[in-house]
Design brief:
5'-nucleotidase,  domain 2, five-stranded mixed β-sheet, single chain, 27% helix, alpha/beta
């Protein structure tokens, strides 16, 4: 059914020779719309659908355990951030993603390419932001206040007063250092309320941002395709005391 709206106007001419329209009545009605499938269009769509289904159903690896979303720490979050940091360990100190960007779980068993697209349907690109000490602490406070977000490369402890302590896996010399955060362009540009990262003012030219020209989804796909089995676990990298 299609909604049909008829508006009735009264047009008048005033003493200044200006046309004035007044709505005096609005009528609503429904028109029945009948349609029939077009076999030629269905045939064209099905041809591409079969090809796409064949690509997406390809088994690319095997998951040794269930990888489920959870807070404050999750197996799927550890899997994603660990693999990202592993590939960029030479230029990044730590990795932070967000739970909202993880759109499905991975269960033990065969993993298809389509499952990775369901897990990460977005075209988010990987970037490195160089944070100062104040920005770093805003990030840790953010993670603490949200009952955890996926991260790799450090340990975080939060007490009952929401005060936190942290320890990097890498040795970083002093508070005047810049900390190399591996994340997505979505988060770097303030997505999911990470406005404090100030990623839009950080550029390659001022030495505070490095765009890696790699989609997060493609990085996960690459890792899965070269691994017979994928695995992760809870390791208490974030603790609420």
């Amino acid at each position: 059914m299609k909604l049909f709206i008829k508006i009735i106007l009264i047009t008048t001419l005033n003493s200044s020779c200006l046309v004035k329209n007044n709505i005096v009545k609005v009528e609503y009605d429904y028109l029945e719309v009948k349609s029939h499938p077009d076999p030629s269009i269905d045939s064209l769509i099905n041809k591409y659908k079969l090809g796409l289904d064949s690509v997406m159903s390809e088994v690319i690896t095997y998951a040794g355990v269930d990888m489920l979303k959870a807070k404050p720490e999750s197996v799927i979050g550890n899997f994603m951030t660990d693999l990202c940091l592993n590939y960029y360990d030479s230029i990044a100190d730590f990795c932070v993603l967000n739970n909202g960007g993880i759109r499905s779980d991975l269960y033990a068993g065969n993993i298809t390419k389509g499952m990775i697209y369901q897990l990460m349907p977005f075209d988010n690109q990987m970037v490195i932001l160089y944070l100062n000490y104040q920005e770093l602490n805003k990030l840790f406070a953010y993670i603490s206040s949200r009952n955890g977000e996926p991260f790799s490369g450090f340990y975080l402890s939060i007490d009952s007063l929401n005060q936190y302590t942290y320890k990097f896996e890498k040795q970083i010399s002093n508070k005047d250092s810049l900390y190399a955060l591996l994340t997505t362009d979505y988060l770097a540009n303030g997505g999911d309320n990470m406005w404090f990262l100030d990623g839009e003012s950080k550029t390659f030219q001022n030495g505070l941002r490095q765009d890696l020209n790699m989609k997060l989804r493609d990085l996960i796909l690459y890792h899965c395709q070269k691994s017979d089995t994928i695995y992760s676990q809870i390791d208490n990298r974030i603790l609420y005391e």
